[in-house]
């Protein structure tokens, strides 16, 4: 996912305010807070005031020990083990959001440089933004199964060729080679089936929740806001083992959501990756207060139902339509 982003794509000139390739992209954000950018978009001005707070809460290397634990019995099939909300904490999802911030900030810097007629700096920033966007698109294609269909097709062609080679080996009584090719074909068939299933899951995904919607965790009870979604679980096998995803009613083959957790309910969790089985939608309108350091960058504000309105770039990232609040005839 974002972790695989090449550091070379995050290198820009010193004048642009972006540091060199020897620093991680997390440090890019730390340096950015030192440079104030004037912009018509208030969200990006607030970025430089809030980034330090975001990193203190989001960086696992400086997180203090959790002093608030929400113990709850695991209510899924076969569950006799107690887990807390931290089991669904996702640094991968957090980094995905932070790199999205980085893209927004680069775009703002490009526009500011153009407004100031600093065309050389604007071009350098635009080139860097293009590199980052291309790399993120590649990662999204892998994550969301866009490349799985082509991989399945490539494997199918390879299988056809190997079957012809195996038949030739049998005809020439080279049974050792034939057995080796048979095993290779079996392995490729399993990989092709998995790739096809993943591509199909992404193409036919049906989500019960939408971007910006307020949700409540069924088990741990905290309030959250949806800021990202995947048709299936895209976390690592170790994360799924810790979260005991296999004990969910629908396992890992269901939509999973990146959610921002209200800091007043759990100030250490920040971003969680939660299965659809674990989420509930409160009865609207839910106008309860919701605070999170990322909220002003991902959403314009709250709508009449108490949900949040995602920025255009976030909707484009997940290819989701705008959500319109139905007009109440009495209010009209």
UniProtKB/TrEMBL annotation:
Transmembrane segments: none annotated. PANTHER family: HEMIMETHYLATED DNA-BINDING DOMAIN-CONTAINING PROTEIN (PTHR48439:SF1). Residues 206-310 form the Hemimethylated DNA-binding domain. SMART domains: YccV-like. The keyword Magnesium does not apply. This is Hemimethylated DNA-binding domain-containing protein. GO terms for molecular function: DNA binding. Residues 115-142 form a coiled coil. Pfam families: UVR (PF02151), YccV-like (PF08755). Keywords: Coiled coil. InterPro entries: Clp_protease_adapter_ClpF, Hemimethylated_DNA-bd_dom, Hemimethylated_DNA-bd_sf, UVR_dom.
């Amino acid at each position: 996912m974002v972790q695989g982003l090449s550091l070379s794509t995050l290198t820009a000139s010193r004048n642009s305010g972006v540091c060199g390739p020897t620093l991680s992209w997390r440090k890019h954000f730390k340096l950015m807070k030192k440079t104030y950018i004037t912009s018509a978009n208030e969200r990006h001005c607030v970025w430089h005031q809030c980034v330090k707070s975001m990193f203190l809460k989001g960086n696992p290397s400086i997180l203090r020990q959790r002093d608030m634990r929400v113990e709850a019995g695991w209510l899924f099939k076969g569950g006799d083990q107690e887990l807390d909300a931290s089991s669904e904490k996702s640094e991968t999802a957090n980094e995905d959001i932070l790199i999205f911030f980085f893209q927004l900030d680069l775009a703002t810097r490009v526009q500011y440089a153009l407004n100031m007629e600093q065309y050389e700096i604007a071009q350098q920033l635009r080139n860097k933004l293009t590199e980052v966007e291309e790399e993120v698109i590649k990662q999204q294609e892998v994550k969301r199964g866009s490349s799985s269909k082509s991989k399945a097709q490539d494997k199918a062609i390879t299988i056809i060729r190997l079957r012809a080679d195996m038949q030739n080996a049998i005809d020439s009584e080279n049974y050792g080679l034939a057995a080796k090719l048979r095993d290779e074909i079996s392995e490729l068939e399993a990989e092709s089936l998995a790739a096809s299933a993943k591509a199909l899951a992404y193409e036919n995904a049906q989500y019960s929740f939408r971007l910006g919607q307020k949700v409540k965790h069924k088990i741990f009870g905290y309030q959250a806001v949806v800021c990202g979604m995947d048709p299936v679980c895209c976390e690592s096998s170790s994360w799924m083992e810790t979260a005991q995803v296999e004990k969910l009613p629908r396992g890992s083959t269901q939509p999973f959501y990146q959610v921002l957790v209200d800091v007043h309910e759990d100030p250490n969790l920040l971003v969680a990756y939660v299965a659809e089985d674990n989420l509930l939608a409160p009865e609207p309108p839910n106008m309860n207060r919701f605070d999170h350091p990322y909220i002003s960058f991902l959403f314009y504000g709250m709508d009449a139902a108490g949900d949040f309105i995602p920025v255009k770039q976030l909707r484009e990232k997940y290819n989701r339509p705008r959500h319109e609040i139905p007009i109440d005839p009495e209010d009209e």
